[in-house]
Amino acid sequence: MAALLQVRNLTTRIRTSRGVVRAVEDVSFDLAEGETLGLVGESGSGKSMTGLSLMGLLPPGGRIEDGSSVRLSGRELVGLPARELRAVRGNEIAMVFQDPMTSLDPTKTIGHQVAEPVLLHRGGTRAEAADRAAEVLGLVGLPHPRERLGDYPHQLSGGLRQRVLIAMALANEPRVLIADEPTTALDVTIQAQILTLLADLRARLGMAMILITHDMGVTAGHADRVNVMYAGRIAESTGTDRLFHGMRHPYTQSLLASVPRLDQDPARQLPTIPGLPPDLTGPSTGCAFADRCAHATDRCRTDQPALTGPPEHRFACWHPVDGPRPQGDLPAVPRPAARPKSVPAEPKREAAEPKSAAAGPKSAPEAVDAPDSPARPLLEARGLVRQFAVGGAHLPGRGRRVVHAVSDVSFTLGHGETFGLVGESGCGKTTLGRLLVGLDRPDAGTVTLEGTDLGALRGRELRRRRQDLQMVFQDPFSSLDPRMRVGSILREPLRIQGIGTAREQRARVAELLAEVGLPARGLDLFPHEFSGGQRQRVGLARALALSPRLVVADEPVSALDVSVRAQVLNLMKRLQASHGLSYVVISHDLAVVRYLADRIGVMYLGRLVEVGSADDIHLRAAHPYTAGLLSAVPVPDPAAERAKHGTGVSGELPNPAAPPSGCRFRTRCPLATDRCAEQEPAPRSFGPGHTATCHHPLREPVPAEPLPASA
Fold this sequence. Notes:
Layout: E1 3-16, E2 19-32, E3 36-40, H1 47-55, E4 62-64, E5 69-72, E6 75-76, H2 82-88, E7 93-96, H3 100-103, H4 110-122, H5 126-139, H6 145-148, H7 158-170, E8 176-180, H8 188-205, E9 208-213, H9 216-222, E10 225-230, E11 233-239, H10 240-246, H11 250-257, H12 298-302, E12 313-315, E13 379-389, E14 402-413, E15 418-422, H13 429-436, E16 444-449, E17 452-453, H14 459-465, E18 469-472, H15 476-479, H16 486-496, H17 502-515, H18 532-544, E19 550-554, H19 562-579, E20 582-587, H20 590-596, E21 599-604, E22 607-613, H21 614-619, H22 624-632, H23 638-643, H24 674-678, E23 683-685, E24 691-693
Parallel strand pairs: 3-9, 3-10, 7-8, 8-9, 15-20, 15-21, 18-19, 19-20
Antiparallel strand pairs: 1-2, 1-4, 1-5, 5-6, 10-11, 11-12, 13-14, 13-16, 16-17, 21-22, 22-24, 23-24
């Protein structure tokens, strides 16, 4: 097909205080009408900067070098006067940005922001522009679009805000759409809806699309061809099927191997890519991937390989591979160690005792019985309820509006066990996690740690017990104090609890940093001087400072690249084994939870709708919501992804301040009947430890055992 967009030798430089960044280096490709080209790679590989260069939206200090060419329908865009480029941007070529909350103006209505590009490029009256805004909002599936014109961005969910961004980009029916990580911050269910929407719009409007993502599963199902980028260059370029089943570049092979999959063996460590991407302000010699590549030779470090091969499959490597990496040689995950019997009566000074660096690896604690009873779980949650008032002060004669964040949730957690919590944003996962570690108090119900009701504790006893409960937050950048150096951040809980002398505390902090795989010089750095994956390691180190028994990890890898994600997941399993930790892992990614968890609880609108072993949830799901979540998980297999088109959970999560009657999932369930609206389902058994609350389950429940005859 004739190329709609032709990019030749695109080279972008950004002048910063640290030097000149080689953001994009000699990138060339064609894009045909109706085609989707995937741009994949780690953060810093040049994907987004390539898209911004095509749009002429470079940051301060950015410049497209001479010799670069971007031609749209034969018209050269590089060097075009700003006035003429503005007439093209948003009209013939448009972009959907990664974060809708920061891309939308919080002070302007949805209708104004969608109508604005129509007025700028097409003219007409404001009424005509508003009509077009309502039309295009309906096109992208926004419910009641005309009624939403007066809403502000904060009044919409993440999925609806992303639809508004897409509507803005499509308002003038551009010929090329650049989608930059359009689903990164979304749940898998909403992600599947947005990607299906983009594919349908592309087919309906005949657009060409550039899909920028680090999610290989998303690429597998929605790209016709793929360019793999590394250090600003194209490392491999070919069709989607060939890339996933017959890749030639070691970087592509490593990226695909690092993806957690639902069928991943949790007893084996995830493959990882060692090291970090190169600093693009330094000199460029040899292959940029050489320092992280297992196949590299001296030639790789001195000679830059060119992008060679037939047009249908080009790659830049001196020592190409042949297909996916074998999985059979992966090391086993170490088994969790047992923990000491109970918490001492005084503050745990021994937790801060430094160990000699020459002592070698830390040995596992001796196995002992759990307190009081070997069968007693570490943690018990019983009937937890948490509600939040909304809408201002309570007025006489009016009912008080409350958000039902957690509604009658009960489960147990064993010693050394990992319990996964999955569900969409707004289902109550994070609130439940905060209740478990004592950062919030339930309105009803109890949290019991080794037989002790945490809600009944006060003062010193509560502070002592809370050493055993720690939390790793979703965004390490916002949860770490930007004014404190990492050494002070890690030492702070030891000082507050009065554990150890100053010398012992410093030794403990150095030990923690080494344990999570960070260099000793990191003690003197601030959080912003670390990468995202390194900051998450700092968060893990802080959680371990007081030698806890339970760690609640809230979306610990959701914001990380796939390669860094694998490193952090392996680290979490290693730390669990060496410290005898129990985890509650909160995530909307079932593949991550499947890899980490022994048992999984599926939450929907504040309730646990299904609980079972990882195999029960993955292979024998009983609740329709669980099955919908599983079908929405992107998998790095083009054939499997294309076969899933249109499956998953439809619609938006209902308002938690006014949950549906009966079964809360009924408004989105394909199996719902009148009974579902009238009667709330009770938990039913589907095997040992496997329960689900559904009137019309996907599996036959296990018959209840008859009660013993009375004497």
